[in-house]
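so my prof wants the structure for this chain in the tokens format not the other one, which i didnt know existed until like an hour ago. anyway here's the sequence
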Amino acid sequence: MHVVVMGCGRVGASIAQELQGSGHDVSIIDRDATAFRRLPEDFGGTKVKGVGFDQEVLRRAGIAEADAFAAVSSGDNSNIIAARVARETFNVPKVVARIYDAKRAAVYERLGIPTVATVPWTTDRFISALGSGSADDVAWTEPSGEVAIVRLTVHESWVGTSVTLFQENTGSRVSFINRLGRPVLPSPKSVLQQDDQVFVAALTDNLEAVRTVAAGVAPEFD
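here's what i got, hopefully its the right format
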């Protein structure tokens, strides 16, 4: 793929380096030429000095032929404007914007612009690293912060229960199960087994209730 990255901060430089290492053709844009010093000496992509949402700057970065565009500068407004220009003016198939304000990220997600909201993600990672709070089982958080995938502590009495009943009773959706070190995508008829690690998707406002039901004794089913 040809990928255009806007913003050569630590995130942008890291993305550009990883993409190039994976064999992709990369162009990176930054208004400050000294920012390109963050790139490795062997970086073989195109470096373009300029404002990332300026159409002429984008053209010099090869946006017309781009398969993907990542706006990861330090400014929310710049990122979202650049993302919209890339998608709406140049019809880039894959566009993503880094947004610091989670509420704004949710709005842009509804407009069809994928975003990475750094605050909820970073918060979860910090809490996990510190070993504090209930977020240590959070595997992923949706950019708006309204949905999360978590690993549940499941009471042994749930063993033998179908995934369908487990979902109905906990108010969650089983995303996958880690069974004996291997991931399993369950069907509605799958049953929970001893030592399963169960990962579910749930509304964040309902997480505590989901955890409580899963960790408690399973009800008696007919």
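also thought this was worth mentioning. The two ends are 54 Å apart (CA to CA).
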